[in-house]
Amino acid sequence: MSFKKTIILAALLGFLLILFYLIESPKKDDKKVEHPLFIAGFDKAKAATLYIKSKARGEVFLKKKAAGWVVEANKKHYSADTAPVDNLLDTIAKIRVESVVSRNEGKYKAFEVDAENGVEVRIDDSSQKSLARFVVGKSGPDLFSTYLRLADAQQVVLASGMLKMAFDRELKEWRDKTIFSLNQQEITDYQVKGNLQYHLQKKPNGSWGMAAPEKFTLKKETVEDCLKTASALKAADFAEGRLQDFQLDKPVREIIVTLNGGASRTLLIGKDKNAFQRFVKTVDADTIYVLESYNLEKLSPALDAFRQGEAAKNIKEPPAPDKKQEQEVTKEAAPQKKAAKPAGTSSGKKKKKKR
Prior knowledge:
By secondary structure, the protein is an alpha+beta fold. It is 24% helix and 32% strand. It folds into two domains: 44-174, no CATH class; 178-310, Immunoglobulin-like, CATH 2.60.40.
């Protein structure tokens, strides 16, 4: 190829690149289209009551009080977990409408925004003024969107986000699973009673020691893990029933945590739910929790787990037997060999050969 042809091809290629850039590059005055909010002006700070109803989960009523949110269901009141409540309110404030998909009431059931299949949501302020009322339907065609309908609107809209999981929750997912929420630095005394017994005390210098059943220096890592678990203890689930059904009327173990000033928290340990979980409750409340067994092991490890180095080794490993003594015992225990019998019959006489 001649030099002249190479120059021409290079110029043509450069022209095409410039043309492509001019066509594909965004214009400076182009603005990204922003979808409208589903509920314009929604202020989560004003929310005081939440009512959620679905065919699968039933009715759940949440109310904001001075100490936090409370959840009511089946005529019972429980402390609510603030995380899912905050998530729900944040989600509502950010929902944006991608498109209007229908204005036909006959299609409500297909989008699951009807009273029978949808999740009804009502949010009011402290004066019972409505902040939001809508129905959450099924997921959109891409699974990352959701069909919604305002309670007083005819149109069904498609909104971005997997929204149904934020609203359609079981009662236990709204309830607060916190058993203990303590300041670890304020714990001064730790006692375990029942089928396992020992007593830990914090010394004036801040270190921990075993006070009973015997005194010894504790393994720092085990103590730290124990106190850390007790300070932020959470349940895996809840249980309903009589105390005797869970062996909590006569607990097998008690864990007593004492704080600065003398205030204490007591955890009662009942029977196993299964191989991995245990029923527990605090002494000052009626709520029955399901606790993971590995957390119970951290709360009340075996006594020897607190021992350090050689002390723990000496407890766990019995002394090796003396080798000389072991050889003598083996020799005495060995069975004696029986005297060899002469060839022939059992009486020792040889049989005569037949002629």
